[in-house]
Here is the input.
Amino acid sequence: LNYITPAEVLAALREPRLGRTVSLSAPVEDWPAADNPDPAQHQMKEPLGADAGPGLAFSMDRIAMNIHGNADSHVDALCHVIFDGKLYNGVAADTVTASGAAELSIGVAADGIVGRGVLLDVPRSRGVPWLEPGDHVTVADVLAAEQDQQVRIGQGDIVLVRVGHRRRRDEQGPWDAAGARAGLHPTVLPLLAERRIAALGSDGNNDTAPSAVAGVDFPVH
Here is the structure.
């Protein structure tokens, strides 16, 4: 895990030249779709308004979400992926229980993550609106996007790789993204490790489907 140092934060804060903010969130959907078979549920708890008697009463609601779907935006904790009985950095998987994660929880990011954000727009670099489901972002794509945008990703950076997933969904509608989606080819990971980035994100879920690695469905995860 590459921590962002105070010096890197100060260096990042000196770089912005525009005061515009852009949200990276996606609206929470509560209806089923091809890529969202288990959508968020919004329920009003009883008593309902028509059942309220004399005096004080409250309208109350309950929201339930499958955070790790293909339609809602989210940030994965380092305890999210278990491989051969281990979490990130060799931490034992049994540290995750029904009551939460004793190690590697997303709670460490409760106050936010600050660093230099670098957006690599791979479809723009290729001259297309989006990458088609199943297509891979390669090392050559990353290097080409860096050159086109006159930027170089480095230590402590929060790297966001655009594949055009959300634009394709908005224009062509939802599809079974679990079966086919664009993402990073695993061969990109040594480059990102060498550059010592701090965080990785995408408008997909970083992984290509079908997987490029036999027997491992989410090699980038």
In short: The helical segments are 6-13, 122-126, 139-149, 165-172, 189-195.
